[in-house]
Design brief:
- By secondary structure, the protein is of the alpha/beta class.
- The protein has 2 domains: 121 residues, Rossmann fold (3-Layer(aba) Sandwich), CATH 3.40.50.300; 279 residues, no CATH class.
- The chain is 42% helix and 17% strand.
- The protein contains 17 helices and 14 strands.
- It has a 6-stranded mixed sheet with strand order 9-10-11-12-14-13, with helices on both faces.
- A hairpin with a 5-residue loop joins strand 9 and strand 10.
Length: 416
């Protein structure tokens, strides 16, 4: 069995257990939630309730209060969504009787607040942590620090040492993705795993949380999301191309988002200009799944011959930034910017105090003035809120490109 890797979100989970009565860890299937849950049970001498076990699930469905009331805490319930509303109501009743932190930790393969069959949100009682596939730094067994450095100023970011990574290594990382189980698998084995995974999520897992009359539509939508990763989420276009009405398409999108197959990067809302496009961008959660579904391999990406290189690279960066945003300090939101004139910035990271770091992703190894023009525009409009702009590219050197603008290798995202 492959050795498990330390997860950067684990300190945040421990912090939340000291703060909230209930902690919810959500994430896609196979990202390591069960491994993390078992480690927490061992570290804190808690009790594991595994709802993948048929007898345990039957008992919890029949009388959740009876099963949970006398267990030693923290009580860790794996795949909690299987037991539905009844389990959550029981958890709420138990924690309301004894107001102390760290009583329950729930793990689930759906985004907790978007599951339509759950009426109980545990509002005011729960802290939520999203567990993503492994980041590149986690794969190397070290901490992710890029966002922290970026918000600490230009010098702090430029002092970061990028990890050694050739174009071929970056392409391999994009195609490998971050699922722990297949991190060392061959390309052929990884492809078979991806096919099975996507079919399971769309044809079985989706049916556990809502009724879908034609699950095959979800599979078709998943493939279309991969083909259009890093593009604007124009619902009418998706609906037309799939032959679905808008309402059905929106429901399907919400379902696959709840199942962590894709994520949206919203448009940056700002009063810097009134001519801002409002569409979110759609990104696949894992670039490895997206690459397989569009038929891209590491060789074609490294050569620059595959038409999906740019979108896959952008979604790869989106995943790295979204992972770091889970635990970074300051806490940031991940957005994008595009105005009606066509000026576009791939990512705008905004801190809670309004400061921003803008990021452009380039598939080339050369950066020119045109590549930084949008960053210069936002710098002028945001003024003191603008910490810096960064062009992440496939070159090897870090260097300044004007006031508060830096060109940096993509591998700086997992540098130190």
């Amino acid at each position: 069995m492959a050795q498990s890797l330390p997860r950067a979100a684990l300190p945040l989970v421990h912090e939340y257990l000291r703060t909230f009565r209930v902690v919810v860890v959500t994430g896609a299937r196979q990202v390591g939630k069960s491994t993390l849950a078992r480690a927490l049970v061992e570290a804190r001498r808690g009790t594991l309730v595994d709802l993948d076990d048929a007898q345990t699930l039957e008992a919890v469905l029949r009388d959740p209060n009876a099963v949970l009331s006398n267990l030693r805490g923290p009580v860790v319930i794996d795949e909690f969504q299987r037991a539905g509303d009844g389990l959550l109501r029981a958890v709420k009743q138990i924690v309301d009787r004894a107001n102390r932190p760290g009583r329950f930790l729930l793990t689930g393969s759906t985004r907790f607040l978007t599951v339509p069959t759950l009426s109980e949100s545990l509002a005011g009682r729960a802290g939520i942590v999203e567990l993503w596939p492994l980041s590149q730094a986690e794969l190397l067994g070290r901490a992710d620090v890029w966002i922290d450095r970026a918000f600490s100023g230009v010098d702090a970011l430029r002092d970061l040492r990028p990890a050694p990574a050739s174009r071929a290594a970056i392409a391999a990382a994009v195609c490998r993705g971050g699922y722990p189980e297949i991190r060392a698998a061959s390309a052929r084995a990884r492809g078979r795993w991806v096919n099975s995974y996507v079919e399971t999520v769309t044809q079985r897992d989706a049916l556990e949380i809502t009724r879908v009359h034609r699950p095959v539509e979800l599979l078709r939508l998943a493939r279309m999301l991969a083909a259009r990763t890093a593009q604007g989420l124009v619902v009418t276009d998706f609906a037309r191309d799939l032959g679905l009405n808008r309402g059905t398409l929106e429901n399907h999108l919400a379902l696959l988002e709840a199942l962590h197959l894709w994520h949206r990067v919203p448009a940056w809302s700002t009063n810097l200009t009134s001519k801002v496009a409002k569409h979110a961008k759609a990104h696949m959660v894992d670039s490895g799944i997206a690459a397989h579904l569009v038929g891209a391999d590491a060789a074609s990406l490294a050569m620059g011959s595959h038409p999906a290189l740019g979108p896959l690279l952008e979604s790869f960066v989106a995943g790295e930034l979204a992972r770091q945003a889970t635990w970074s300090s300051p806490r940031v939101t991940l957005q994008h910017f595009r105005d009606r004139s066509g000026t576009e910035i791939d990512f705008v990271l905004e801190a809670s105090d309004g400061r921003v770091v803008a990021v452009e992703v380039k598939a080339s190894a050369v950066v020119n003035g045109q590549d930084v023009r949008a960053l210069e525009l936002i710098r002028g409009r945001a003024r003191d809120r603008f910490v810096q702009g960064v062009v992440l590219y496939q070159g090897e050197q870090t260097y300044p490109f004007g006031d508060r603008i830096t060109v940096q290798p993509i591998s700086a995202l997992w540098g130190r």
